[in-house]
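Q: I have 254 residues here and want to know how they pack in 3D. Can you give me a structure?
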Amino acid sequence: MRGHSDIRNTAAAFLLWMGLAHGASATGVEPAKDLRADPAPCVAAARAQDDDKIVNVCGALIDNDRTDKADRIKALIARAEAHDRKGMSYPAIRDYDDVLRLDPTNADIHNARGELWRKKGDLPKAVADFAAAMKLNPEHAAARANHRSMAQELERLGALKAIAGKPSFNCATARRKVEKAICANPALADLERDVHVSYVRATREDMTPAQARKLRREQEEFIARRNASFGRPGYDLQKAMKQRLQQLNGVDGY
């Protein structure tokens, strides 16, 4: 027959095992709690497309310091879409701005923000967003269609005058010397934009994938040569862009 000390030892061992099995230590310390914010209410509101509730509960998730980056991005997108459906374009744009600060490589959001800028009549910003989406994902069908229709709209409405002296890219983020030179010269800026518009217009719906890849490769090679050659003796930036414009217009049939 076992003594009292053996019984006590066995009981202690059993309690220790039970504590470990339930995630507690022998000292009674509780397991660490998950401190992340719960995205479930925002997800449920988004699925139901309850715009008022989305703005409320997803807004709370966005403002919570414990929200994961991925959940914050999803909440911002859900709220932006709700704002858009409610006709509140600028709050939607601000939400998309925040998404792109967290994930600048999101081509879908560049395209979505571009559509909002287009709706608000800010055509240069719309063109810049569609171009950014295409640069991030050359196969982005919606961005390509938007960019192409925007180029056609600009020509049809004569809206190119509204962006006279502005290139196709954002001068505020220009880093290369050649880009800064284009931004500083309205004539070069107009010419650069004409080259870009002609390139987009040349990418027709009836192009085969091989033709589209060839045209895109030629355009990328032109830009690479422009960037590498600018500032070297004998290189004429304006002449080079005019030659490229003629090539594109020949491809386009204009």
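Q: Anything worth noting?
A: Confidence is low (pLDDT under 50) at residues 4-29. Residues 198 and 248 are 6 Å apart (CA to CA).
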